[in-house]
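Let's practice the habit of predicting before peeking. Look at the sequence and jot down your guess about where helices and strands might fall. Then scroll down.
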Amino acid sequence: KQKVIDRVVGLKQNGFKILAGTTGNSLKETIALSQYAEQKGVDAIVLAPRYETYLPVVEYVKGVMHNTNVPVVLYNNPFITNGVHVDAAHATMLLAHPKYKSRIVGFKDSSGNRISITTLLYVRSMFDWFSVFQGNEQGLIENPSAEVDGFVTGSAIFDPQLFLRVYDIIKTGRTVSAQDINTLNNYVAAY
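Done guessing? Here is the structure:
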C-alpha cells in the first residue's frame, strides 16, 4: 500500500485530490499506514473498518483520527469488510463530536442500499462540508439522478471513458443508452 501511495502522490496534478485507502487488518496497522499517507501529502484517508479490528466503528475511526491530522472519508463496503457496516449513524456521531467534526469530510457507500444513500444525503444537508459518494454501479444504473456528490466505482478503473461518458450524460439530465447500461451491467457481473 505504501508503494501505491508513493506512486499516486508522485503523479498528483493540480486540481486533483488524492484519497488513500489506509484500512489495515488492525487499528495499529491502519494508524501506521494513515500516518505514512499523511506524511506523503494525501488530501484525505479513506477508512473502511474491518471485522478483524474487534472495535466498534466509531472507536476505530477515533483511534485513527487521534493519531493523524488528515481529513477522513468513511467507506461502507460490507463485501470487503467481512460484513461490517459503516452507516449514517456512525457518520453523524463523528460529525457531532467537536474534536472530529471538521475532519470527517465524506462518505463513500458501496453497499448498494438506496436507503443508506438517502440517509447520508440527509446528513449532508446538516453539514455543508460533508460529501456523499456512490460506490456501486448498480446504484448508478438504478438511481442515476441521486443527488450524490460523485460516483467512485470499480468499473471506472476498467473503462474510465465509458464511466465518464455515462456520468456526463446523467449529470446533464439525458438518458443513458441501453448499450452503455448493458456494458456497465457486464462490469457489475464481472466485478
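How did you do? Residues 27-40 form the longest helix (14 residues).
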